[in-house]
Amino acid sequence: MLDYRLVEAVAAVIREGGFERAARVLHLTQSAVSQRVKALEDQLGTVLVVRATPARATDEGRRLLAHCDKVGLLETDLAAALRPEGGVGGASGSPDSDDSEPAHIPWTTLPVAVNADSLATWFPDAVAPFLRTERALLDLSVDDQERTHLLLRDGHVAAAVSTRAAAVQGCRCLPLGRVDYLCLAAPDFAAQWLPTGLTEAALCRAPAVAFNRADEVHHQFLRGLLPTAAAFDRIARSLPLHYIPSSERFVDVVAQGLAYGMIPLPQAREHLADGRLVDLAPGHAVPIRLYWHCWGLRTRLLNALTHHVVTHAQQVLAQE
Known about the structure:
By secondary structure, the chain is of the alpha/beta class. About 45% of the residues lie in helices and about 20% in strands.
């Protein structure tokens, strides 16, 4: 049987990225945290934390962290079942029904990975009803939609918005919908840099923008636009690219006429309507299909979060 005081110490070090910050969160001395981590490593016979700056989990540490989070969700379900009136977020319903919320009912943290464009558009509205009615805290990790499932696979999060269609082992996978990415620019930028359209010569000299180096949407667009793989290879080698790892600032850079780029339709719609942006390649949108991955563990909180995210996404995203 694991000593969960020790498990809690390991989880805090991994989440907080160091022993000193973990000590503050746990209201312990740094020495006490270190001793607890070492005691659990000795008990299990394996290293759980890489002592670096920041501290990070080993593969075994990631598995332990995922186990700790799952136990926490199960304990939340058990505590709710044992409360006479169903407690916060239970059968008694509204968070406004009682101004004296019991202090002993703990908050449960749900780590979730989401891509920046979803976070900037539909995801906050999807989780708002859940956060209003549940005693839950979100710990969001933001990454490219092609990589968020890796955080789930490695035990960093309990759920993720991802482009991966196949379920991660031990997890559920539910379709959310489709987001179309359009190649857009400000009219003045298009007139200056792309006067005859997206020719090979223009693509090699006009500055473009991508979210980060893992962002493949721009390259997907070019592969679909260009007639041959050889043409794509030539342009990809000389493509001038800004990297702007912020969904909102990404759109600003394009709207200010500093670059052209792939923008999701929900963010582009208003700019297209008022003429601040123009579609450089009508009919060549890149469809990105999104999926909700979450642990197969069917706890009440995780089920509730899943219900809100999937239901809202299927209402606001394109469906096929």
